[in-house]
Amino acid sequence: MPEESTPRRERKRTVQQMVVVGIIATAIGIAIGLTIHWFPPADSTQADKIDTLWDVLIIATVPVFVLVTVIVCFAVIEFRMRPGEENLDGPPIHGNTRLEVIWTAIPAILIVGLVTYAYVVMRDIEQAPAAGNERVVTVTGQQFTWTFAYNEGGKRFSTAQLYLPAGKSVKFDVKSKDVIHDFWVPDFRMKIDAVPGITTHYRITPKTNAIGDHDIVCAELCGLGHAYMRQTAHVLSKPDFQAWVTKMTRQPAATGGGGGGGAQAGTVDAKALFTQGNPDTSATACGTCHTLADAGTTATTGPDLDKVLKGKDAAFIKQSILDPNKVIAPGYQADIMPTNFGDTLSPQQVDALVQYLSKVTNK
Ligand code: CUA
Question: 265: CA distance to ligand 1 center in Å?
Answer without folding.
Answer: 35
